[in-house]
Amino acid sequence: MASYLIGYTIIGVLVIFVVFSVLVKKRILFGNTVSVQKIFGHPLLHYSLRRIGSSLISIALAIIVTFFLLRLAYPAQATCLKLFAGNHVSEDLFKLRCDTWKEEMGFSGSVLQQLGTFFYNILPLPKNICRTDIVIGNGTFSYEIYSCRAFVINFGTIYNLPGFPDGGFVIDYMLPRMMTSFKVGIIATVLELGLGYPFGILMARYQNGIFDKIGKTYIMTIDAIPGVAYYYIWMAILCGLFALPRVYDPNNFLTWLPIILTMGFTGMSGIGLWVRRYMVDEFNADYVKFARSKGLEEGRIMRIHILRNAVVPLVRTFPSAVIGALMGTYYLENIYNVDGIGRAIIVANSSYNSSLLVAVIIVSALLSVISYLLGDIVTAMVDPRISFTS
Amino acid sequence: MANEKEVVIDVKNLSVGFHVRGKKTNVIRNISFPVYRGETLAIVGESGSGKSVTTKTFTGMLDSNGFISGGSIIFDGLDLAKFKTNDDWLQIRGKRIATIFQDPMTSLNPLLTIGYQISEVLILHHGLSKKEAKEEAIKLLAKVRIPNPEERYNDYPFQYSGGMRQRVVIAIALACRPEVLICDEPTTALDVTVQAQIIALIKELQEEYKWTTIFITHDLGVVANVADRIAVMYAGQIVEYGTVEDVFYHPEHPYTWALLASLPQLGTKDEPLSFIVGNPPSFAGEIIGDAFAPRNEYAMNIDFVMEPPIFKISETHWAKTWLLSPNAPKVKKPKVIEELHLRMKGAATELKRQEGEDYE
Amino acid sequence: MAVKNLNEKDVEKLFREVNENDPRLASSVPVEDKIDTNIKDLFTVVGSSEEKSERLDSAPYSYWRMTFSHLFKNPLVIVCLVILGILLFFTLFGTLIHYYPPLTTNVEGKVIPNPTPDLINMTKFGDPSNNYLLGPNSRNWFGVCFSGMGAFYRGQDMWSCVWKGTQLSMLLGVTVAVIDTVLGILIGSLWGYFRWLDPILIEFRNFVNNIPTLLLDILLMQFFQPYMERYGFLIIVFLLTALGWLGLAGFVRNQIIIIRNREYNIASQTLGSSSKAMITHNLLPYLISVIVTVVSTAIPGAISSEVGLAFFNLSFRVQDGDITLGQILTKAVADQTWMRYPYLLIGPMAVMAPLTVCFFYLGLALADATDPKTHR
Which of B236, C50, C184, C195 could form a disulfide with B29 if both were Cys (CB 3.0 to 4.6 A apart)? Predict the structure, then answer.
């Protein structure tokens, strides 16, 4: 009961906060108190609220589409058969397991009711969810509840996955794997940026020179050759030529290297391309010509006028680069056996655990909305031309 | 009297070419002219006539595919046409020859404050400290009549109107304290009312700081007010050069006639506004004879065959047209040109009146 | 040229030169007599002349000639075209030129080696167990498929497999590229032209951007699995084109909005043109460069995407006989045997890499050549 109280209190406080802020902004409350206006009427806060509000539509759309795809791709009875039917499963046991699973997956009622349940489970509302499984005795079986939790978001349960209890919560499976993906991904992101920026800057600086041509060829090759093929070429180089380990081990950093390096060398091409483009645009900008005619030396023009301005439009991509690391990489995690999200979805699909796929889709959608919002905010912080007031 | 004046920049036989898609084109074709110290030289011509390119060679600001293919530009004993490295140019750019560009909307870095962009120059050229630079920059802003300069010091360019930005650009040029100021169509992008203010400001500051102005424009009307001398450019050549009186009252080149005749200020209500038919020649092909001939109402057979030489009219005035040859028939100048004296007076009073209004 | 007056003599000398060089003025009259008449003739006012202005201009401009001259000036374009020609030739005739039957026959999952002389080599290369490995030799130019690649591939000649795979991959690539382009331009044009479509499609694009495409493919494939045997090709084309048009449509929309606001279209609208006429007559010609580019980069794009699907087992079922380059490539690397026997990867890559890179480069070169801005 206490968890319900806490849950509803949090939601209540949030709602009151939003309503209060809007009233302050509209000068209905505290219209003349500057300090209150400064905090609750801050344009940044209201811009964020507006953005979150409008992206709720696209998230709702994502949830509805996912729901119907899910029902199409994983019809109840067929999935049940794949999940629970086996050589030593009696008719009764199968029926019990299947019914439990259907209950957990929200299969009861009409399609609209099911959609409602789907939304209710996914929305951050307080609800008490228990992990249940069937205990098989000597010729008998009984229904048992292991643990209950006041979940805020319920993505459902997982069955038949090695190393994970039957009926376990998706969220428990997902979070540690997101962390694994993130640990590798964030280092790779730093490397991508660390390689991509000098790469793009050098290409722009010596435009049409030999470095630029090599760089452009490299970018084109990466764009053209299929990712999988390209990753295996890197595997041949890193693991064959430099004898790096071929299988990921969370405790041995050396085994992380092939993944990180491959991501770094791939990701740098895209970043380099944009850095080059923006830099070349700046090179031809009138104010750079004017700065030159003022008598500024090239090094200073490069640092203060070109580089700064070229980076501003790219700042927008930083949050999504960092947040994106949470969701892992699909190819590399599967090639190198990293136990992250990218691998989890493949495992989930081959073991018919659709709830995990749905969870990944929805978390991805949420994170990408947050990334865009943060991208806007960061851009506004570095670009004086943008303000949130209008 | 012109001979007594000191020549600050002496351009001799300057040619400029561009590499375009593997081909070489000549954009400036063998031009020579002096720029006298303390005066204002206006370079007038249609767009594409090579006005900007000419002055860009003075500060080494040609686009990367442009090159000087011959001639010299003597400035204070230095031949600017021979300059190669950026280090050479650092001694000249800003410090001694500064430039104001056409579009004030894009001349300033949008992400740096106005103050920073002025102080930057003061610190660089005069070795001021940050604090001194700020004080000086505020003074300069006041000088170009920016209201509340102290508050506006920290503003960004997007917070300024076009006219205000051009004032800031002028303030930056002031901060350089150059000997020569190149104004590359400084008013083209501005409203007509603001144009007059900016021109008046440049003129006023020139009197105070005693620099030499090279004023590039396609508008002869602007020129009458500011220039001491005029060079009329057509298709990469100077076709007529002289003092303002020479060019306005005794124009000899048919292109100058056409330009003057098309000035709206000089037209009268009952006659249609004249214009020049056709387009200037493209630089892709070779130009034979007088480049202006195909558009010239007074073209003679020889104009299509042979490039005219320079004919000297007086000590200060010359033109490049076969019409000045002793063999040429006497042609009657257009009516507007004959009546120019009278009409100019009318237009000048009109302009004065407008200016007075602008300063209210 | 210095400031000086020409004297009479100079002028006469000049005129003589002019006279001799100008066929217009040439006649049988002796030179001495000509000077006077010529000078008179030369200094006759003839006024402005449009036809004479023409010779000052450059040669007349032709869009397609400029495009092709620009394109074929680039030696790499020729190289790419030659490589693509060779690849296309082998795709069509590769298995006819050189075909070698499977070394082993596959009976109920059991592998019975063919009694060929190559068997000796095979055992030499291979593991003693069921894993047959045979590197490139005079019969098997790309070597022999590895038994670890799955039952279908056991003992198959890699050369024959690769060209068979390229056939389907190319067909898929072209189909997807055409559909993507047609849909992209069609929807993009409508999107740009009708304002009311804008919020709907923008919301749709947000939705697509927010969701990883692979997950949608996984769900869709789960649904389509039972129909793969009969409608395999259509299903894969659907997966690849379902969202593939969106990027192009967005691009076309932006271009149309830019162009739509140009004056001649405003004029055209006030004169009463219909929407359809406006799109086809005024806007689409502007997009030629875009279309050409998109088609040629969409082909390698679709081939690559299929490789991605194959990697996650979302592509054709090999047991139905539908092999693609993607399946060979991803099956060849399925375990790490290829690290010891690189020929497993080299064979498919030797076709895949030049194929995608050449198409892609050609696309970029076409984009450059068809852009009127580069025709200076």
Answer: B236
Residue B175: both structure tokens together:
């901060």
Handedness of CA A325, A328, A331, A333 (dihedral sign): positive
Q: How far apart are CA A365 and CA B357, in angstroms?
A: 61
Q: For chain A, which domains are there?
A: 79-154 (no CATH), 172-382 (1.10.3720.10)
Nearest to B285 among C3, C45, C57 (CB): C57
Mind telling me how many Å the CA of A383 is from chain B's nearest CA?
Answer: 7
The amino acid sitting at C244 is G
Q: Which of A277-281, A299-303, B264-268, C310-314 has the lowest mean pLDDT?
A: B264-268
Q: Give pLDDT tens digits for A142-197.
A: 777 777 877 778 888 888 888 888 888 898 899 999 999 999 999 999 999 999 99
Cα angle B87, B88, B93 (rounded to 5 degrees) comes to 95
DSSP state letters, C36-88: HHHHHHHT-B----HHHHHTTS-SPP-HHHHHHHHHHT-HHHHHHHHHHHHHH
Look at strands B317-319 and B97-100 and give their pairing: unpaired
| Residue in A287, A295, A384 closest to B106 by CB | A287
- What does the domain layout of chain B look like in residue ranges? 105-175, 252-351
Q: C218 contacts in A (CB within 8 Å)?
A: 345, 349, 357
In chain C, the residue whose alpha carbon lies closest to the alpha carbon of B316 is C3
| Triad B54, B56, B60: Cα angle to 5° | 125
- Distance CA(A88)–CA(A26), nearest Å, equals 67
Asked whether residue C105 carries a pLDDT value surpassing 70, the answer given is no
Contact C44 B312 (CB under 8 A): no
User: Are β-strands B97-100 and B311-314 bridged in parallel, bridged antiparallel, or unpaired?
Assistant: unpaired
pLDDT digits (tens, 9 = 90+) for A80-92: 888 887 767 778 8
Alpha helix segments (H runs only) across B289-339: 335-338
Which chain A residues are within 8 Å of C355, Cβ to Cβ?
none
What pLDDT shows up at residue B273? 67
What pLDDT, on the 0 to 100 scale, is given for residue C49?
Answer: 67
Interface residue B264 vs chain C (CB under 8 A) = no
- Chain C interface mutation, best of A67, A232, A337, highest count of C Cβ atoms under 10 Å: A232
Looking up tokens 């940026």 gives A193
Window from B123-137, B184-198, C348-362 with minimum mean pLDDT: B184-198
| SS3 call for A147 | strand
What pTM was estimated for this model as a whole? 0.81
The pLDDT of B305-323, averaged and rounded, is 87
When the candidates are 3.90.1150.10, 1.10.3720.10, 1.20.120.1200, 3.30.2290.10, the CATH number that belongs to C160-374 is: 1.10.3720.10
Q: Model confidence over C231-249: pLDDT tens digits? A: 889 999 999 998 888 888 9
